[in-house]
Amino acid sequence: MRPHIVIVGAGFGGIKAAQRLAKEDVDITLIDRNNFHLFQPLLYQVSTSMLSIEEIAYPTRAFFRKNKNIDFMLAHVQKLDLVNKEVITPYKKVKYDYLILSAGSVTNYFGMEQFALNTYGMKTLREAIHIRNHVLHMFERAERETDPEIRKRMLTFVCVGGGPTGVEEAGALSELIYTAMKKEYHRLDFEKDVSIILIQAEASLLPMMPPDLREETMRVLKKKRVKVMLNAIAADCTRDKLTLKDGTEIPTNTVIWAAGVQAVPFIAKSNCCEVDRAGRAIVTKTLQIPNHPEVFAIGDCAHFEQDGRPLPTVAPVSTQGSIVCSENIIALINNRPLKEFVYHDVGSMATIGCGQAVMAWGKLKMKGFWAWYIWMTVHLLRLAGTHTNITVAMKWTWNLLSGTRLGRLITNIPDTRDDR
Amino acid sequence: MRPHIVIVGAGFGGIKAAQRLAKEDVDITLIDRNNFHLFQPLLYQVSTSMLSIEEIAYPTRAFFRKNKNIDFMLAHVQKLDLVNKEVITPYKKVKYDYLILSAGSVTNYFGMEQFALNTYGMKTLREAIHIRNHVLHMFERAERETDPEIRKRMLTFVCVGGGPTGVEEAGALSELIYTAMKKEYHRLDFEKDVSIILIQAEASLLPMMPPDLREETMRVLKKKRVKVMLNAIAADCTRDKLTLKDGTEIPTNTVIWAAGVQAVPFIAKSNCCEVDRAGRAIVTKTLQIPNHPEVFAIGDCAHFEQDGRPLPTVAPVSTQGSIVCSENIIALINNRPLKEFVYHDVGSMATIGCGQAVMAWGKLKMKGFWAWYIWMTVHLLRLAGTHTNITVAMKWTWNLLSGTRLGRLITNIPDTRDDR
After folding, report:
1. Which of B35, B53, B184 shows the shortest C-beta gap to A62?
2. Rounded Cα–Cα distance for residues A79 and A93 (Å)
3. How do residues B157-172 score in pLDDT, each as one tens digit?
4. Does A124 contact chain B (CB < 8 Å)?
5. Do A394 and B411 touch (CB under 8 A)?
6. Contact between residue B352 and residue B221 where contact means Cβ atoms under 8 Å apart
7. What is the ipTM of this complex?
């Protein structure tokens, strides 16, 4: 019998691990709750009508056409049973010899139910489509609204979270609204009625960036008419209003929550290993779960300490981890010694808009058009599929030149939140 | 006061009429239940994962960026009040001086509730996305299904209706399944388990085509492993089964209903004018509603007789009608005599798959690759937006060469029909 490896999650880490292990003499089951691999870093471009879903999501099975030893299973994992070596799904229990947890993260509302109910998350494709539908719908409703208070509230868009997701979403919203939408809603007064607000709990945006790039970010956002509120902590949220800790009230129907992530909840719920506050499985230097050498965890759902701090929840951590963990599984099978994981920082970057980005890599710092150009190239190279590479490059160029947004389609019957 | 023209429906006719009238000294309100113009003839390519929604839907407001005299209104029209000259929507009553009804058609279930409940329509973007999600999901479920009967039922796809929509859908499904899907579901036996069936009530497919092209269509479909059943009338439908009038039972979870259309129901419901059996407003030679010279109806929601027969529900009828009706409105405003509408047949075409189509125009007949090539060019030229023209052309070429389908994304939580 060949060893059976189960991989939970078809994100950056899961796909890479499966690709590497597929070449070995093993059987693999790859489980994911979606039938596609999502290029998360560009999710904000779907939510702001720039890219289509086909451009950032790629059918998972298409990666493994030639790998008959890989089975894909569309399922929500409910629980882990590390004692009996089983992954429990609604359809069946999947036995494993080796397990890779690369299941990623979900939005973290830090236990505040009112935010889970009344804000829009930014982690899944469905959430991005919801934001797109909702924002477009707010403009349609605002144009026929006669009460100026309600109209202003409908056109106030708040992003909570001053990390890359929040910054990118706020910048992209500004471009969507002030370039594409402004030309087409002849009856709305954009200067008077539209507000885009970015709420950051800390003293600066993009805290992982060097100070001058943080300032550049502030400057560009200001130019894009995004109002940045620093040291501002979201305290309460209803359908019509966001309240800050200092009592400030912001009337709005749109709060986009980009304030944090936590590991997928089934790991902590399974009570099978030690997890940190964000529900991430704490792993050894070799990426294993202590006392369960056959179980590995990588990426957003793993807590790996390096230089006294857990690694950040970014794609390269997951990709680099997947290489070491697949090598270690092969080492285990062949009774060879395991390798310790060392993360090599590839820097951080954030795009604030079309033609504008900031990036830092060690001592190298860049901003403006060329930072954006590199950002674009890096992302393009990592997108799955040659066809997509071409169309996305075309779309970005087209957009830079024409300022249009082809994705402004309301596809869903507005959800209940819109029936306020 | 400038005359106020209300146009209901932003399809082929509505958009064209609005574009023509926008140049005149009038105010226009364009009302549609969607915020986009849909290129209906390619809807089947969205339902079969070929094109993305952005490629066949174009934001309606984007057509009228420079026309300040056009207001767009996103609303479901509920009723017409021709006496008080009002169009009634949930938000407000819209007064008009002149009215163009270009509201199109919806699926016709001919009063059979069980088909409305248990089949998939093919008229709206949402319906196309539903079909896409459902078909992909059936394959995921079938692969893990152990009961061979149930598996076979999940992989039996039935299209009802032997007109262009049914033929195109069946052909495209075959390509999706036997080119893209077959490579990726390693555990399924496609020869044994998959069936694609096309049900036609009449004695031949595409009755408007000359006999040799009908036979060509049969031949190509057979090659694509589509089982065509002629003189077969759908009589009953449950969640698991389609029953024909002769008693034949086809176990299936997927019945796609392409058997007919009727005018949008609000016209007949308004009891304001004479309608035919399909709910279409019967119009005069000048496209007016009798006794209401200020009200015009065109396209799928109008019944216009020529050569003793009502015109077919195809795009050119609507486009040609929109030109005459906008000219007639200007004539009315200026007290000039009206023009009678004469439809010029532009022939009919249907594509049976990538590289294969049939077309007839008067005595000219074509089939095979060059018919497909012309079909492709005609459709491309009529798609809104240069960017879209390029990406769609690329996608079709890419698909012809590689046989891939990038749109195979399950985006919705499967609807209740999938929880059988």
Report:
1. B184
2. 10
3. 999 999 999 999 999 9
4. no
5. no
6. yes
7. 0.90
Taking each helix axis from N to C end, the angle separating A386-402 and B386-402, rounded to the nearest 10 degrees, works out to: 170
Q: Which residues of chain B are under the pLDDT cut of 70?
A: 384-387, 398-404, 406, 412-420
Task: Give how far B211 is from chain A: nearest CA, Å.
Answer: 39
Q: Is A38 on the interface with B (CB under 8 A)?
A: no
B160 touches B166 (CB < 8 A): yes
Q: Is the pLDDT of residue A88 over 80?
A: yes
Residues in chain B: 420
CA distances from B199 to B135, B153, B166, B244 (A): 18, 17, 8, 9
Bigger pLDDT: A230 vs A372? A230
pLDDT of residue A91: 87
- A179 reaches B (C-beta below 8 A): no
Residues 6+ apart with CB under 8 A from A147: none
Helices (H) and strands (E) in chain A, counts: 13, 27
B277-296 residues touching A, CB cutoff 8 A: none
Separation between Cα atoms, residue B20 and residue B31, nearest integer Å: 16
Contact B60, B35 (CB under 8 A): yes
**Measured between alpha carbons, how far is B323 from B336 in angstroms, rounded to an integer?**
16
A261 within 8 A of A300, measured Cβ to Cβ: yes
Comparing C-alpha atoms, which of A165, A176, A169 is closest to residue A139? Answer: A176
Q: Answer whether A71 touches B (CB < 8 Å).
A: yes
Name residue A8's amino acid: V
Active site residue A168: yes
Shortest Cα distance, chain B CAs vs residue A114, angstroms: 23
pLDDT exceeding 70 applies to what percent of chain A?
Answer: 95
In this predicted structure, the answer to whether residue A417 has a pLDDT above a threshold of 90 is: no
The letter for the amino acid at A105 is: S
Q: A306 CB contacts (<8 Å, ≥6 apart)?
A: A342, A343
- In this predicted structure, what is the pLDDT of residue B400? 67
User: Which tens digit of pLDDT belongs to each residue from B130-187?
Assistant: 999 999 999 999 999 999 999 999 999 999 999 999 999 999 999 999 988 999 999 9
Site from B52, B54, B184 to mutate, A interface, most A CB atoms within 10 angstroms: B54
Model pLDDT, residue B402:
67
Instruction: State the count of interchain CB pairs (< 8 A) between A and B.
Output: 116
State the nearest Cα–Cα gap between A71 and chain B, in angstroms: 8
Nearest CA in chain A to B75: A140
**B179 and chain A: CB distance < 8 Å anywhere?**
no
Question: Residue A130 belongs to what H/E stretch?
Answer: helix A125-143
φ, ψ at A398 (rounded to 5°): -55, -45
pLDDT value at position A118? Answer: 96
For residue A208, the distance in angstroms to the closest alpha carbon of chain B comes to 33
**pLDDT value for B133:** 93
